[in-house]
Structure to design on (202 residues):
């Protein structure tokens, strides 16, 4: 994967960087922790302009976020409640949980999207509930842009400043990404195992 990403960054220019970031959001195994420091390093070598790298990466990332937002819109709150009624254990949600989550998201959607766009793995997932619970598209796009721009800026700048050591960024962030995935999996299993017990408690 590294060789392919390198070719896309070096040979695809800004369009290649935007496409990689789009794919990173739609297909998370392609990590931004690899793409952005490499693109920043390419800018340090004079192959790209750092500002345009950040702009292209932000645009590509936002397109991926919009894709998942509309997947969430397609599912919708009422359909999710029907799924929860039929397959609650596998979703780890009851229809009541769906309504409670909607109330929480209504109160905290801006913070959830803003900070979520800066957390590995969550960056992709946060767009789905934003769509399901009908967060206003302009608000979603605005807070996604702010969070994404910060994330992109930090990673691309680190590659620019570290030069040949840009791969250290991925080395340091990979354990964090793996930890987040592990936490999500443990949380999912816990909720699935305790699903019936939670149904009996208000």
């Amino acid at each position: 994967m590294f060789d392919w990403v390198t070719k896309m960054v070096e040979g695809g220019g800004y369009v290649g960087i935007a496409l990689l970031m789009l794919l990173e959001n739609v297909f998370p195994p392609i990590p931004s922790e690899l793409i952005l420091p490499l693109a920043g390093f390419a800018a340090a070598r004079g192959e790209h302009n750092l500002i345009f790298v950040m702009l292209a990466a932000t645009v590509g990332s936002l397109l991926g976020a919009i894709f998942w937002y509309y997947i969430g819109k397609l599912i919708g709150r009422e359909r999710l409640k029907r799924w929860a009624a039929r397959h609650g254990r596998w979703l780890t949600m009851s229809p009541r949980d769906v309504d409670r989550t909607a109330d929480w998201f209504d109160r905290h959607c801006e913070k959830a999207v803003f900070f979520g766009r800066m957390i590995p793995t969550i960056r992709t997932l946060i767009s789905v509930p934003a769509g399901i619970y009908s967060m206003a598209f302009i608000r979603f796009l605005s807070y996604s842009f702010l969070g994404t721009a910060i994330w992109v800026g930090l990673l691309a700048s680190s590659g620019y400043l570290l030069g040949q050591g840009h791969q250290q960024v991925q080395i340091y962030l990979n354990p964090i990404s793996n930890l987040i995935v592990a936490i999500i999996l443990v949380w999912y299993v816990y909720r699935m195992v305790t699903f019936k017990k939670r149904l009996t408690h208000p």
